[in-house]
Fold this sequence. Notes:
This protein is mainly alpha-helical. The protein has a domain at 41-128. It is built from 4 helices and no strands. It has helices at residues 7-14, 29-32, 43-101, 103-129. It is flat and about 80 Å long. The relative contact order is 0.03. The mean pLDDT is 86.
Amino acid sequence: MQPKPDSGVREALEDRDPNNLNPHLQIVWDDIIGETEGARSPECAWRLSHVCFKYTRNWCYTLLSVLAAPPCALLLGCGFACLAFEQIWCTTPCLRFLKIYFASLRTVVQSCMAATVAPCMEAVGHVCRHVRVNIRRDAPEDRDLLIV
């Protein structure tokens, strides 16, 4: 049995943060307000404050979403389209061009380094290979001459 064509849209509307981009915005009353044993408001004030917080947050977010989300989505869509265009048509071809162009220069530099620097580094390596470091725990401590 095939799923209905709008089932993907319905799933997308249900899970609006599938990649968990905003876990830091899981804001509930208990994350914001907490009274200690020594400082407690009356039960009616606590409940009324909780209801005011919840409904104000929801209505304010809904209002801002309705008014500001479509223009933001338009600007973000244009911005990401420009970014994709720049990456696809400018940056990637430019980097590919430079990689091809400098391939021969890379070969020349590698040859020069192999002829000059590599033998010097091998000689230094042979000299340093025989260096031994011994740590003695029973060595006397040097006294600081500046302490009186």
